[in-house]
Amino acid sequence: MRRLSAARSIYLPPWRVDVVERPGVERAVSFAALARAVSRALSAAGAPAPAAVGVILADDRESAELNERSMGHHGPTDVLSFPLLEPTDFPAHLGRDLAVRAADRPRGTFVTPPGKRLHLGEIVISVERAIAQAEEGRGGQTGDIRWSPADELLLLASHGTLHLCGWDHAAPEEEAEMRALESQLLATRRSGLPPGR
Question: Which end of the chain is more exposed for a tag (fewer CB within 10 A), N or C?
Fold first, then answer.
């Protein structure tokens, strides 16, 4: 008998994180821990509130299909982000794509019906890829860390969320800023203190 997708909406005001786990995907971290990682990244990135984000825990097959269809790249990847807002709809930062920073305009005004949350986008994480990277010593920000699959998944959730919020790592300056914030978010998770950004 095939297991159905598991889904849960987790409210961490002002955020709602909708986590969906595809059938057959190994549960390597709790939905609550993923939601907390997304929530910390949204707060640190200055995302408009209240808002919602979807996190889909998938396998390599789904990741490869999405990677090819949306990015034009062959094979699976660890995390894909599908933002619904423009990078300029978030506060300016050095982790923003250089071309976008050059054309920065004032932040938009977010108007939603009363009681409704703005949906910021979807993050798709290949749990299969995350587990392999962590166990084979290809995890972490540098791709050479051996740590728990849970740590790798929490890093990927933070990373994907920052992409939803306009962060990038194509240029060295952007990458340095994004990696610094990710490190701060990971340290925050361990200390329990809010991020200092």
Answer: N
**Burial class of 129 by CB neighbour count within 10 A (0 to 12, 13 to 18, 19+):** buried
The model's pLDDT over 149-196, given as tens digits with 9 standing for 90+, comes to: 999 999 999 999 999 999 988 888 888 999 999 999 988 776 655 554
Q: What is the CATH number of domain 6-103+114-191?
A: 3.40.390.30
Tell which residue, 22, 50, 16, 51, has the closest CA to residue 36.
16
| Residue ranges of domains in the chain | 6-103+114-191
- The answer to whether the predicted template modeling score (pTM) of the entire model surpasses 0.70 is yes
Greatest CA separation for the chain: 54
Q: Of the candidates 115, 113, 133, 117, which has an alpha carbon nearest to the alpha carbon of residue 125?
A: 133
pLDDT tens digits along 36-67: 999 999 999 999 999 999 999 999 999 999 99
